Amino acid sequence: MKMKQLPTLTNRALASPYTGWVLMNVLVWSLGLYVIALCLSLFGMLGAPIGAILLGVIVGSGQSWMLKKMLPIKPRQWTGSSVAGSLLGVLPIGLLIVWVLLAAVIGVNTVLLILGAIFGGILGGLQARVLFPMIHEKVGWWVIANLFAGALCAPLSLTGASFWLPVFCSLGPVTFGLLTAMTLRYIIHTWDVKI
């Protein structure tokens, strides 16, 4: 590869809607996780649903802004589904004593993986309702991608050495963005438009 080709490849990658999707997800998930942490510190467990609603608005708005460039979605529906998915996704945290006991037996990372998978699956399932009319035969891939992305994002963002780093420096939001971007690319490139 010649050195002159490198700027062209970089420009092409930065112009890609999928690169924009990844970057937007890093931004909105990092901001959203900080908002939930802030709400929890200010309001205790009552902050979880408040933070989840704000997380849903942040993530849903950012994702819909990028997604409407790729698919004919209605941004309000996407944001509304993201809010509902975030709110329902944090409800299992209310079983805090169960998770504390499980963490003692199976470890914190495993518990975070399970909680992240539950959150991602619920979020992806509700967002999939918006995608269903367009890509009904492939919509299951969206749910699966969010389930895995959530499962990986939680332990990568919230434990170990990354705990003292800002969330955006952790691999969690990046992993979430990459997995969902690859799934979007697959869905869109195999989409059979029947209008």
N- to C-terminal distance = 42 Å
Characterize the largest beta sheet: strand count, sense, and whether it forms a barrel.
none
**Mean of residue pLDDT?**
82
Give the structural class: mainly alpha
Domains, number? 1
What spatial form do the alpha-carbon principal axes imply?
Answer: globular
Characterize the quaternary organization of these chains. single chain
Rg from Cα: 17 Å
Low-confidence stretches: 161-165
Order of H and E elements: HHHHHHHH
Q: Helical proportion?
A: over 70%
- Please work out how many helical segments DSSP would assign: 8
DSSP strand count: 0
Beta-strand percentage range: under 5%
What does this structure look like?
The structure is a single chain. This protein has 195 residues and is an all-alpha fold. It has helices spanning 5-15, 17-43, 47-67, 75-90, 96-106, 108-135, 139-158, 172-189. The radius of gyration is 17 Å and the shape is globular. The protein is built from 8 helices and no strands. The chain has one domain (15-189).
